[in-house]
Amino acid sequence: MRIERLFQLVNALGAKRSTAAELASRFDVSSRTIYRDVEILVAAGIPVTTEKGKRGGIQLMEGFALGKSVLTEKERTELLSGLKGLGSSKRCDSEDMIAKLGVLLHHDAGYWINNDLYDAIQCGRKAFDDIKASIAESRILAFDYIDDSGKKRSCTVEPDMLWLKSKTWYMYAYSLEKKADQAFSLNRIKSPRILNETFSPRKSLCSPEPEEKEIFLRMKLEASQLCRASKELEEGWIIESPDGGYEISASVSEGEWLYGYILSFGEHARVIEPAHVRNVIKERLKNAVEVYSETR
């Protein structure tokens, strides 16, 4: 594709001076095509220079940095470092792109971030990649979904985006069954299947919102659980109490994940409010005691 070749051409010209013949051989095109590409780059405002003679050739103007006029030094550093951080997951084909951007920006940035967003995915990496591919290729996605009541239902959607909120991944999509935009928690999506049928992306005015409703949670926590809570929760959510313990206060999405998370602290945590969440936890603990009290 010409766009890809133009990008690669700028990358090559930024690395060293080359002749039209050398570039033609590299990109498997004619020298005339190279000259036409150079004309397009110049028309786009990229300062490509040409020199005749034995030591002549084509190259970018010395000192030119693509985007220098719109990106500050700090912004270029953050852009490249951020991309490198995302690439550190080793699950995206980003190394070539980052190298090219480094040349185009005439800038290099070290790795100051090491991140693996896949660690937040509970439904499995293959499922995440299937959803990502469905979005990129604009192909309809079918899957089974576990709702709040624990029931499984079949869904067919036009996926729009993936995003991470409160340590949970969601897929925002247009539901073909409900004829409406919907948010799906990835850890409830089972057996995703990419269909051959394609769709045209919709321009929705709705903001993606998860199915779970937001609640304000207050919970007492023993001091022995501070280390764990500090790793898993936002710093501002944890407040020291006069009795030596701690209190968690935060707006969170209610759902099975929240109930399971509270129960995972066992006897070391107690819900203060809301009352209905406190009652749900009490009922589940009561049921658990009855299960373990059964004799076989």
Q: Any overview of this molecule?
A:
The chain has helices at 2-15, 20-27, 31-43, 73-87, 95-104, 125-137, 226-232, 256-263, 275-293; strands at residues 48-51, 57-60, 139-146, 152-165, 168-175, 180-185, 189-198, 214-221, 238-240, 246-253, 269-273. It is elongated and about 90 Å long. It has a 5-stranded antiparallel sheet, with helices on one face. A 4-stranded antiparallel sheet has the order 9-10-8-11, with helices on one face. The chain folds into 4 domains: 2-60, Orthogonal Bundle (Arc Repressor Mutant, subunit A); 71-115, no CATH class; 120-198, SH3 type barrels, CATH 2.30.30; 214-293, no CATH class. α1 (2-15) packs across α5, α2 (20-27) crosses α3 and α4 (73-87) runs antiparallel to α5 (95-104). It contains 9 helices and 11 strands. The protein is an alpha+beta fold and 296 residues long.
Give the gist of this structure:
The protein has nine helices and eleven strands.
Layout: helices, strands, pairs:
Elements: H1 2-15, H2 20-27, H3 31-43, E1 48-51, E2 57-60, H4 73-87, H5 95-104, H6 125-137, E3 139-146, E4 152-165, E5 168-175, E6 180-185, E7 189-198, E8 214-221, H7 226-232, E9 238-240, E10 246-253, H8 256-263, E11 269-273, H9 275-293
Antiparallel strand pairs: 1-2, 3-4, 3-7, 4-5, 5-6, 8-10, 8-11, 9-10
Helix pairs in contact: 1-5, 2-3, 4-5
